[in-house]
């Protein structure tokens, strides 16, 4: 399960259509877990207090209009990762869908030292980067986190540290220690996941709070629902592979968007500066690394425009070799960023 204050996702069996189910739920049967309680407060809070899985377990489907909804309505809050198994889907849920804000279960399960106002590890290291990273990672894994791509090869960490927006990344000296902590926490998800977790923790330790706030408020720690809906609806003969590439390249896209964020994007005087994730660019690179054919839609005008915006929001030129290496290519394909893009052979 993965969740966040604004865009939470959960593995379940049927889609959600706004609040249609709510009148069909036997609320008295739902028993919230301790982490679901909002806590002490002076004023009442709005929104559904129950976890969506608990709601779904208590829906009377014999009376529900859920299954009568159109296909578009049923998929409105679904993130499609290209899995051909229709029983497993990711659901978008949170404050915007009528649920109450709460502390994520991923956060409440952290070691107690990381939940202090000034987080520290058991070894006395500053733990704020680990705390923030674990909170993010606990709610954006998706359904198949072992498949997320993040190829750490020789030279790529140095490039991320020395040529990103936040260079020289002084807390890079904690890399070995942070890797050890993340390996203990996430080793079951594989070495690529541990490497990505380590990188996001180090970034959270290095970047200014104002930049972090701007990035989180833009929802850039999550896979792009907009891009996913475009891919789901666009005409393609290779849709499943393309959707898988979108999901499986999402951690590279996330870290690129943060490490190469425009340096003035978080200043109060730069509200017109756009920040985004290079989701389409990353999925294209991963398809190339897997020797998949160029998508039929790759050079459609609206896709070209979207890629142009993605590239324009990454600072400098040094991100290109890094993103190519992280996704399994030996180098950035010449002309790949052009409009129209040169896919190559």
Q: In terms of topology, how is this protein built?
A:
Elements: E1 11-12, H1 52-57, H2 71-74, E2 78-79, E3 89-91, H3 105-108, H4 128-137, H5 156-163, H6 175-186, H7 191-206, H8 209-217, H9 225-233, H10 239-248, H11 250-259, H12 279-289, H13 301-312, H14 319-326
Antiparallel strand pairs: 1-3, 2-3
Helix pairs in contact: 4-7, 5-14, 6-7, 7-11, 10-12, 11-12
Percent of residues in β-strands: under 5%
Taking pLDDT < 50 over at least 5 consecutive residues as the criterion, the unreliable ranges are 1-25
Helix/strand order: EHHEEHHHHHHHHHHHH
Give the N-terminus to C-terminus distance in angstroms: 39 Å
Total strand segments? 3
Q: Which sheet architecture does the biggest sheet show?
A: 3 strands, antiparallel
């Amino acid at each position: 399960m993965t969740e966040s204050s604004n865009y939470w996702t959960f593995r379940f069996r049927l889609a959600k259509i706004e609040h249609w189910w709510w009148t069909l739920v036997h609320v008295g049967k739902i028993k919230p877990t301790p982490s679901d309680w909002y806590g002490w407060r002076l004023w009442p809070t709005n929104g559904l207090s129950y976890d969506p899985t608990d709601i779904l377990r208590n829906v009377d489907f014999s009376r529900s209009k859920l299954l009568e909804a159109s296909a578009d309505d049923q998929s409105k809050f679904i993130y499609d990762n290209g899995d051909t198994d229709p029983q497993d889907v990711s659901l978008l849920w949170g404050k915007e869908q009528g649920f109450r804000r709460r502390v994520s279960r991923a956060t409440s399960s952290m070691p107690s030292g990381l939940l202090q106002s000034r987080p520290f590890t058991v070894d006395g290291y500053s733990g704020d980067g680990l705390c923030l990273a674990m909170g993010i990672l606990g709610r954006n894994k998706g359904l198949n986190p072992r498949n997320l791509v993040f190829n750490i090869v020789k030279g790529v960490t140095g490039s991320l540290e020395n040529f990103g927006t936040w260079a020289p990344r002084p807390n890079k000296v904690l890399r070995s220690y942070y890797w050890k902590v993340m390996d203990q926490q996430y080793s079951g998800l594989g070495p690529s996941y541990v490497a990505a977790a380590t990188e996001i923790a180090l970034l959270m330790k290095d970047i200014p709070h104002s930049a972090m706030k701007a990035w989180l408020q833009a929802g850039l720690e999550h896979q792009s629902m907009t891009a996913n809906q475009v891919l789901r609806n666009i005409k393609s003969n290779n849709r499943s592979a393309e959707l898988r590439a979108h999901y499986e390249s999402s951690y590279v896209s996330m870290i690129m968007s943060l490490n190469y964020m425009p340096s003035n994007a978080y200043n109060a005087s730069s509200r017109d500066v756009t920040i985004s994730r290079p989701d389409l660019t990353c999925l294209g690179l991963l398809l190339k690394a897997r020797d998949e054919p160029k998508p039929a839609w790759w050079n459609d005008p609206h896709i070209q425009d979207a890629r142009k915006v993605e590239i324009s929001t990454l600072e400098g030129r040094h991100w290109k070799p890094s993103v190519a290496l992280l996704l399994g290519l030996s180098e950035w394909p010449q002309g790949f960023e052009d409009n129209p893009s040169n896919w190559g052979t």
